[in-house]
Amino acid sequence: MARKSRMFDIAAIQKALPQRFPFLMIDRILELEPKKKVIALKNVSINEGFFAGHFPGKPVMPGVLIIESMAQAAIMLFYSEEMNSGAKKNYYLGSVKVRFTHPVFPGDQLKIIVEPLKITSAAAIVSVSAMVGEQEAAKGELALSIKDEPRTF
Amino acid sequence: MQDLENEVRNLVAGIIEKDPGEVTPDAKFFQDLGVDSMMALEILAAIEKKYKIAIPEEKLPQMISLRETMNIAREYIGKKEQNV
Question: CA-CA distance, B54 to B82, in Å (whole number)?
Answer without folding.
Answer: 14
